[in-house]
What does this fold into?
Amino acid sequence: MAQKPKLAMYWASSCGGCEIALVNLNEKLLDVDAHFDFMFCPCLLDTKISDIEALPDGSLAITLFNGAIRTSENEEMAHLLRRKSKLLIAFGSCSSKGGIPALSNLSSKSDHFGTIYLDNVSLDNPQGILPQTRTTAPEGELELPEFYERVRHLAEIVEVDYFIPGCPPEPHQIWNVVEALVQGAQLPPKGSTLGGGKSTVCNECAHRKENKTIKKFYRTYEIVPDRERCLLEQGIVCMGIATRDGCGALCPQVNMPCTGCYGPPEGVLDQGAKMLSALGSVLDIGSSKDLSDQQISGRIDAAIEGLPDFAGTCYKYSLAASLLGGKSR
Amino acid sequence: MTAQAMTNVGTPVSESFEPKIVGFLCNWCSYAGADKAGSSQTPYPPNVAVIRVMCSGRVDPQFILDAFHKGADGVMILACHPGDCHYKEGNQRAVQRYRILLGLLEQFGIEKERCKFDYVSAGEGEKFVRVITEMVDTVKGLGPLTLPVRAY
Ligand code: FES
It folds into this structure.
């Protein structure tokens, strides 16, 4: 029997949700197994990194790489799997755009270490011990990966062939991609996004849009939304308008505002800036003629009080790949 | 003010630092205002690279962030006065976006003084010169902007 092409899946700085999404293919997982030798996936299988290292370069047909790059170990694995794979696919939001881990780019490494190891009510660390990459213990020298200053997405480290968005990617979209690969379908140009649409979540959302403007923004606990009307037009920050479609608008369908996990739509450079543009457009503070600069600013600031954490809301999954990339130093 | 802004303000910045500033000027007002300043030969600092737009409402926030991303130390948006926008509400949208952007910049540790929105009409050549001069001075005081994506 001819050898099946090898499939790998690796988690860098991630939560494991991407692996769950793969398992959520349910019985289709058997089809994946029929077509591929699923040979490496630390979350599900027992193959070791040394097994991958032992393979000739380019032996893996496809690697689904999920998780962001937070540590030197994540980076090493990105390089190793790039070398060993014919197709390296950034799988999920973290790998594609930085995802939730990249929110930490709004603070520095020393801020993080300060909060986690030094300055916190639940801590007892009088000697101020911090993690070291090398420590000598009676048993010998211990090693830990280096914790980088900033979280990066995969394409900042190595060349990425394709991107599959989502936190996590929807199983039906994963299947679409796997099926296309199995059938040897003509793939779009390198660097394209697979398993997603080209428009926005609004395109798939059934809520009624009336092109209304809004007077103020609400946080989700402050309002019970009308089930039929567009959430954004009710003053709720729904990211659908600045997010790639392909998920089926699952969140707004159950009246939860979209949080933007499919990343920016095709052609958009920066998801947060796109959202900012939309929010600035729907806001209506009334006529500003005859108002002073200060009065105009005051009215706007009052209306946007319901947006206390703009960066956290609008770059929830795409901060590493944003134009600013993180906090400036 | 962010911690960084405070250290920057306190640090004497070398006199030789010439900030790069990108100015988005509305065709109908501030661009003409800049012309007026030019034709009346009022000198103003040469640090602002002017991009003419048809309305301040055309300034996508992506343009502003991209300017920072590509090396600008400051960005300005100059619009028609309230009520005078040729497309009715372009300037209102622009200022609404700008106010939200200020909060965003703060979260990214970028001093809000690096991004300025103001109203300059076609007749206000002098105001144009004043606004530009103040902006250049302010950004000179803050020093160069260092973003992690460029610095890393
Ligand atoms: S036309 Fe000048 S701001 Fe709209």
Remarks:
- The mean pLDDT of chain A is 94.
- Residues 201-321 of chain A form one domain.
- DSSP finds eleven helices and nine strands in chain A.
- The two ends of chain A are 58 Å apart (CA to CA).
